[in-house]
Protein backbone atom coordinates (compact mmCIF):
# COMPACT_ATOMS: atom_id res chain seq x y z
CA UNK A 1 0.00 0.00 0.00
CA UNK A 2 1.46 3.30 -1.10
CA UNK A 3 1.23 6.08 1.46
CA UNK A 4 0.26 9.53 0.23
CA UNK A 5 0.60 12.94 1.84
CA UNK A 6 -2.40 15.13 2.48
CA UNK A 7 -1.29 17.40 -0.39
CA UNK A 8 -1.10 14.49 -2.81
CA UNK A 9 -4.52 13.21 -1.77
CA UNK A 10 -6.02 16.68 -2.07
CA UNK A 11 -4.57 17.24 -5.53
CA UNK A 12 -5.55 13.83 -6.89
CA UNK A 13 -9.08 14.01 -5.51
CA UNK A 14 -9.76 17.60 -6.56
CA UNK A 15 -10.43 18.97 -3.08
CA UNK A 16 -8.41 21.32 -0.92
CA UNK A 17 -6.11 20.29 1.91
CA UNK A 18 -8.40 22.00 4.43
CA UNK A 19 -11.36 20.06 3.03
CA UNK A 20 -9.47 16.79 3.58
CA UNK A 21 -8.83 17.78 7.20
CA UNK A 22 -12.47 18.83 7.61
CA UNK A 23 -13.84 15.57 6.16
CA UNK A 24 -11.53 13.65 8.47
CA UNK A 25 -12.79 15.59 11.50
CA UNK A 26 -16.40 15.04 10.40
CA UNK A 27 -15.88 11.29 9.96
CA UNK A 28 -16.47 11.28 6.20
CA UNK A 29 -13.06 9.75 5.62
CA UNK A 30 -11.30 7.43 8.05
CA UNK A 31 -8.54 8.78 10.23
CA UNK A 32 -5.30 7.93 8.45
CA UNK A 33 -2.27 6.30 9.95
CA UNK A 34 0.50 8.68 10.98
CA UNK A 35 4.18 8.50 10.23
CA UNK A 36 6.69 8.48 13.06
CA UNK A 37 7.03 12.22 12.55
CA UNK A 38 3.24 12.71 12.84
CA UNK A 39 2.34 13.26 9.19
CA UNK A 40 -0.89 11.77 7.89
CA UNK A 41 -0.42 8.81 5.55
CA UNK A 42 -3.34 8.23 3.22
CA UNK A 43 -4.02 5.43 0.76
CA UNK A 44 -5.61 5.39 -2.70
CA UNK A 45 -9.01 4.49 -1.22
CA UNK A 46 -9.12 7.91 0.40
CA UNK A 47 -8.85 9.53 -3.03
CA UNK A 48 -11.84 7.52 -4.29
CA UNK A 49 -13.86 8.44 -1.20
CA UNK A 50 -13.00 12.14 -1.53
CA UNK A 51 -14.01 12.06 -5.20
CA UNK A 52 -17.31 10.46 -4.18
CA UNK A 53 -17.87 13.23 -1.62
CA UNK A 54 -16.97 15.94 -4.14
CA UNK A 55 -19.32 14.54 -6.81
CA UNK A 56 -22.15 14.10 -4.29
CA UNK A 57 -21.71 17.72 -3.17
CA UNK A 58 -21.83 18.84 -6.81
CA UNK A 59 -25.21 17.09 -7.05
CA UNK A 60 -26.46 19.04 -4.05
CA UNK A 61 -26.22 16.45 -1.30
CA UNK A 62 -25.41 17.85 2.13
CA UNK A 63 -22.53 16.45 4.16
CA UNK A 64 -25.03 14.71 6.44
CA UNK A 65 -26.68 13.08 3.42
CA UNK A 66 -23.28 12.11 2.02
CA UNK A 67 -22.35 10.50 5.33
CA UNK A 68 -25.60 8.53 5.17
CA UNK A 69 -24.89 7.45 1.58
CA UNK A 70 -21.42 6.29 2.58
CA UNK A 71 -22.86 4.32 5.49
CA UNK A 72 -25.56 2.78 3.33
CA UNK A 73 -22.94 1.67 0.85
CA UNK A 74 -21.41 -0.51 3.59
CA UNK A 75 -24.77 -1.92 4.74
CA UNK A 76 -25.47 -5.25 3.04
CA UNK A 77 -29.22 -4.78 3.52
CA UNK A 78 -29.27 -1.58 1.46
CA UNK A 79 -30.67 -1.90 -2.03
CA UNK A 80 -30.29 0.21 -5.12
CA UNK A 81 -33.95 1.20 -4.60
CA UNK A 82 -33.00 2.72 -1.23
CA UNK A 83 -30.41 4.93 -2.87
CA UNK A 84 -32.76 5.81 -5.73
CA UNK A 85 -35.42 6.91 -3.26
CA UNK A 86 -32.91 9.22 -1.54
CA UNK A 87 -31.95 10.71 -4.90
CA UNK A 88 -35.64 11.20 -5.76
CA UNK A 89 -36.17 12.92 -2.40
CA UNK A 90 -33.28 15.24 -3.25
CA UNK A 91 -34.93 16.05 -6.58
CA UNK A 92 -38.18 16.86 -4.73
CA UNK A 93 -36.20 19.19 -2.44
CA UNK A 94 -34.77 20.93 -5.51
CA UNK A 95 -38.24 21.28 -7.02
CA UNK A 96 -39.53 22.92 -3.84
CA UNK A 97 -36.54 25.28 -3.70
CA UNK A 98 -37.07 26.20 -7.35
CA UNK A 99 -40.76 26.97 -6.65
CA UNK A 100 -39.78 29.14 -3.69
CA UNK A 101 -37.09 30.96 -5.67
CA UNK A 102 -39.54 31.62 -8.52
CA UNK A 103 -42.02 33.12 -6.04
CA UNK A 104 -39.28 35.31 -4.60
CA UNK A 105 -38.23 36.39 -8.09
CA UNK A 106 -41.82 37.28 -9.05
CA UNK A 107 -42.24 39.36 -5.89
CA UNK A 108 -38.95 41.16 -6.46
CA UNK A 109 -39.75 41.72 -10.15
CA UNK A 110 -43.07 43.29 -9.12
CA UNK A 111 -41.34 45.61 -6.65
CA UNK A 112 -38.69 46.69 -9.15
CA UNK A 113 -41.20 47.21 -11.97
CA UNK A 114 -43.25 49.49 -9.70
CA UNK A 115 -40.17 51.52 -8.75
CA UNK A 116 -39.35 54.54 -10.92
CA UNK A 117 -35.75 54.59 -9.78
CA UNK A 118 -36.07 58.33 -9.23
CA UNK A 119 -36.34 60.44 -6.14
CA UNK A 120 -34.72 60.34 -2.75
CA UNK A 121 -34.15 57.27 -0.67
CA UNK A 122 -37.00 58.35 1.62
CA UNK A 123 -39.36 57.90 -1.37
CA UNK A 124 -38.08 54.48 -2.44
CA UNK A 125 -41.06 52.22 -3.08
CA UNK A 126 -38.96 49.08 -2.69
CA UNK A 127 -37.82 50.06 0.80
CA UNK A 128 -41.38 51.13 1.64
CA UNK A 129 -42.69 47.72 0.58
CA UNK A 130 -40.07 46.00 2.73
CA UNK A 131 -41.04 48.19 5.71
CA UNK A 132 -44.79 47.59 5.34
CA UNK A 133 -46.61 45.00 7.39
CA UNK A 134 -47.22 41.69 5.67
CA UNK A 135 -50.73 41.12 4.29
CA UNK A 136 -52.88 38.43 5.84
TrEMBL record:
KW Cytoplasm (keyword) present: no
Instruction: Give the protein name, as stated in the record.
Output: Mercuric resistance operon regulatory protein
- What Gene3D superfamilies does the record point to? 1.10.1660.10
Query: A single Pfam family, by name?
Result: MerR_1
Q: Boundaries of each HTH merR-type domain copy?
A: 3-72
* GO MF annotation: an example: DNA binding
InterPro entries with a match to the protein in the record: DNA-bd_dom_put_sf (IPR009061), MerR-type_HTH_dom (IPR000551), MerR_fam (IPR047057)
Q: Which domain of life is it from?
A: Bacteria
* Source species taxonomy: Bacteria, Pseudomonadati, Planctomycetota, Planctomycetia, Planctomycetales
Keywords from the UniProt entry = Coiled coil, DNA-binding, Transcription, Transcription regulation
Coiled coil feature spans: 84-114
Fetch the PROSITE patterns from UniProt: HTH_MERR_2 (PS50937)
Is Transcription regulation included in the keywords of this UniProt record?
yes
Report the CDD domains cross-referenced here.
HTH_HMRTR
Q: Which organism is it from?
A: Gimesia chilikensis
